[in-house]
Write a sequence for this structure.
């Protein structure tokens, strides 16, 4: 139950962050809509946000935690603290060089990531200006990621998982309170990204010190362990963050489509990222340090059991989430976003992308659950090879599907590449003898699918029964959506209990232990 409790700790904090994230998206949608100005900000935000997802939820955690956990297990606290401090100092130096280089080269960077903007000089120049404001966020969030790795490795998950909440609160305040003092709401949001990085770094520094792991900056030295860390970061980022890199490719291709395509994909991605963030990221974050410790101690059977339970737990919640988003994407988007500058046309086009993205939800969380199986063993080469292949698949499918299906074709390419990635990771781990599906997983997966089908039937019935409410005023529509969501969750929970997916005893034990923790 330890792995499940860790997952729920990270997941609950991530859920709170996502709630604030939805509030942020609702406000941004009302202010910017899904047109040209929104596209500009989303491109400027995409660069540091890509690195946030790669590093905060990927490379630094996956590269640093196994090294730090092994150092802690074998050499003790002081040696582990020394390694963390050396890593922090070296990382700060590298990041300063990278950020300055990108600031200088930003016009060329934007021309590469949004080539469709080159034909509109005003739009292109604004994107460059905003990206220069947002990009230093990379420096702050990368240091945050290393500090989060320290806390996660010693079993303290909540503070690091809560850090993204500060980002969303800061952006909400920026667009609501600061917009009148800037040229556009997009400028206010860009400065909000910058300051959110500062707040998150201060938050993590304080919690690391409070946990007794305060790190002192030293003169940067690239010792053997630090060199190993830096060598692992790039391949780990590609191997674990292939989905995010695919989204970057999507943005490049989408910039060549009519205005609004980038925004449709952004809003669709934000919605379907809820289960990915709450479940997938929580599973990966909690599983990695546990696997690293178990493998370092030679507990192979325990490591296999941990990975099976993590995968089972992830799919238990991801399958019904995917079904719900596929069944009623337009209903959800209409209630959440359709107001102000966000039109009914934007709702329909975003809904198509959301339904397509949601077909890949199980693949995304499978990747999050299986990637630690490589990184906890120090294998960064295999995931990057698989990732490179999937990048090629995504790019080829993007080029083939973008004209006939516009932005929906771009989403379909990402989904296809993600399923190939998940399948190859599974196959390689099983071939090496590092993973196999145990009896409990084989027993529960068909029952999870059956419970999902039952829930889908309940949702369809509710949408039909409440059809008139969805045509009424916003409060009535929101109430109807809340009824569907709550009753859908209740129905799935009842199906899960009836099919033996979760026992009452397990639920009571989990709640009891959570209350004590």
């Amino acid at each position: 139950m330890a792995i499940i409790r860790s997952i729920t700790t990270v997941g609950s904090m991530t859920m709170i962050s996502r709630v604030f994230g939805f509030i942020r998206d609702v406000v941004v949608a009302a202010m910017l809509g899904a047109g040209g100005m929104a596209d500009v900000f989303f491109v400027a935000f995409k660069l540091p946000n890509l690195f946030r997802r790669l590093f905060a939820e990927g490379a630094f955690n996956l590269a640093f935690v196994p090294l730090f956990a092994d150092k802690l297990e074998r050499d003790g606290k002081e040696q582990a603290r020394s390694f963390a401090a050396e890593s922090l100092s070296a990382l700060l130096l590298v990041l300063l060089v990278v950020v300055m280089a990108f600031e200088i080269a930003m016009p060329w960077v934007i021309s590469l990531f949004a080539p469709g903007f080159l034909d509109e000089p005003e739009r292109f120049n604004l994107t460059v200006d905003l990206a220069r404001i947002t990009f230093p966020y990379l420096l702050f969030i990368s240091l945050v990621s290393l500090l989060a790795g320290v806390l996660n490795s010693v079993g303290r998950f909540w503070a690091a998982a809560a850090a993204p909440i500060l980002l969303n609160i800061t952006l909400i305040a920026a667009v609501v309170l600061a917009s009148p003092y800037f040229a556009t709401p997009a400028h206010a949001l860009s400065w909000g990204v910058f300051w959110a990085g500062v707040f998150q770094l201060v938050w993590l520094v304080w919690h690391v010190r409070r946990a007794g792991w305060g790190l002192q900056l030293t003169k940067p030295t690239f010792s053997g362990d630090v060199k190993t860390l830096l060598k692992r970061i790039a391949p780990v980022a590609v191997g674990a963050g292939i989905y995010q890199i695919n989204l970057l490719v999507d943005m490049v291709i989408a910039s060549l489509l009519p205005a609004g395509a980038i925004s449709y994909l952004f809003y669709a991605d934000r919605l379907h990222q809820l289960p990915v963030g709450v479940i997938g990221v929580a599973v990966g974050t909690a599983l990695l340090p546990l696997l690293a410790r178990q493998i370092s101690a030679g507990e192979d059977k325990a490591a296999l059991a941990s990975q099976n339970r993590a995968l089972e737990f992830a799919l238990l919640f991801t399958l019904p989430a995917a079904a719900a988003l596929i069944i009623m994407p337009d209903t959800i988007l209409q209630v959440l976003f359709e107001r102000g500058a966000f039109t009914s046309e934007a709702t329909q086009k975003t809904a198509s992308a959301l339904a397509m993205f949601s077909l890949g939800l199980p693949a995304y969380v499978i990747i999050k659950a299986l990637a630690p199986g490589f990184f906890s063993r120090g294998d960064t080469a295999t995931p990057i090879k698989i990732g490179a292949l999937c990048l090629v698949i995504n790019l080829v499918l993007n080029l083939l599907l973008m004209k006939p299906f516009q932005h929906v074709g771009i989403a379909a390419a990402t989904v296809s590449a993600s399923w190939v990635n998940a399948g190859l990771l599974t196959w390689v781990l099983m071939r090496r003898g590092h993973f196999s599906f145990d009896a409990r997983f084989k027993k529960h997966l068909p029952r999870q699918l059956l419970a999902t089908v039952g829930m889908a039937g309940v949702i369809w019935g509710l949408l039909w029964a409440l059809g008139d409410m969805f045509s009424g005023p916003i409060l009535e529509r929101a109430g109807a959506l809340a009824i569907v969501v709550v009753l859908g969750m209740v129905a799935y929970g009842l199906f899960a209990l009836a099919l033996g997916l979760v026992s009452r005893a397990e639920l009571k034990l989990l709640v009891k232990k959570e209350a004590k923790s």
Notes: Residues 509-517 have pLDDT under 50 and may be disordered.
